[in-house]
Amino acid sequence: MPFFLLMVRFVHSLFRSKRQLVLENLALRQQVVMLRQSVKKPRPSVVDKLFWIIFSHYVDGWRKLLHSLHPDTVVRWHRQGFRLNWRWKSRGPKPGRPPIDTALRKLIRDMQATNIGWGAPRIHGELLKLGIDVSQATVSKYMQRVYKPSSQTWLTFLDNHANCLASLDFFTVPTANFRVLYVFIVLSHNRRRVVHFNVTEHPTAQWTAQQLVEAFPFDSTPRYLLRDRDAIYGEKLQRRIKSLDIEEIVTAPRSPWQNPFCERVIGSIRRDCLDYVIVFNERHLRGILREYFSYYHTCRTHLSLNKDPPESRTVEPPEIGDIVALPRVGGLHHRYTRIAA
Predict the structure, then answer these.
(1) Which domains does the chain have, with CATH numbers?
(2) Distance CA 54, CA 7 (A)
């Protein structure tokens, strides 16, 4: 529309007097000067670019008439248009192999899914016998990518050995009078069950070794026991572990992530319970932990156990009755169950 108005004004100017054209030219120049002072960089449209490209071809001295733009800008526009023109003329078919039919792609993936061990050469040979002429590279391109690890993953290894794995660790709890209590826990990896815990203010190697005996009475000792490199696990504890016929696995220095299950349980104890209470003494802390572990084992659902507690809970259908909430851990958590009306 601006270009059309410009042409209309040009045709109308042909019928004006010379005096009127001079005055109009003066007014236009004044407006251009004013715009150049207020606008640092004009934003020409595609129509504006085409106009000046054509104008520069057919009008001599066009550089002197150009005030809002630099003449080199118009030359650059012309070169860009020249490149685009030749790019359009030189266009060809899309590079690479042409895509194959959707039905053939589905057939390749069905052959791969329904035949164990079939790779690209085997599928390619079967397609040739069916009269389908495609290259083996094309077959490989459209096959489903399947990740096959060179060996079993750590998760699979731990799942296979969960029945014979246990781990132990200490964590600290401050009291109301600024003492520090040490909590010792032993965790069975099979059902994430805390098989033993105790509290002391002054842990020793002898005390820790005795806790290990209390944790695994009779023939309940695990095959492997995972621990960190804390100095509390001295020679006495190591001898006690060997006497129980347990193979000791020691994590790398400063690597708590190598004992993840114990670290996760300690984090759960803090987040679910200890962060909301003030501990007075050892007896008080034992009572809190005893109540929490009862809730932890019988009520709290675990992601790693398919949303089931370590001691499995039965599913209660709606026919049993209404849902009631039973407070646990001093009301911090609740057990939901159904009771007949």
Answers:
(1) 2-82 (no CATH), 102-142 (no CATH), 157-311 (3.30.420.10)
(2) 14
What residues form DSSP beta bridges with 308? 302
- Classify burial at 185, counting beta carbons within 10 Å of its beta carbon; exposed 0-12, middle 13-18, buried 19 or more: buried
The answer to whether 139 and 120 are in contact (CB under 8 A) is yes
- Tell which residue, 258, 265, 274, has the closest CA to residue 310: 265
Give the pLDDT mean for 44-56. Answer: 70
Q: Beta strand 333-339 with 224-227: parallel, antiparallel or unpaired?
A: unpaired
DSSP secondary structure code for residue 322 in this structure:
E
Whole-structure pTM value: 0.56
Terminal CA-CA length for the chain: 80
Whether 311 and 297 have beta carbons less than 8 Å apart is answered as yes
Q: Do the Cβ atoms of 191 and 183 come closer than 8 Å?
A: no
Kindly give the interhelix angle for 282-298 and 260-272, rounded to the nearest 10 degrees.
110
User: 25-41, pLDDT tens digit by residue?
Assistant: 666 666 666 666 566 66
Burial of 97 (0-12, 13-18, 19+ CB in 10 A): exposed
Q: What value, to the nearest 5°, has the Cα angle with vertex 70 and ends 66 and 72?
A: 115
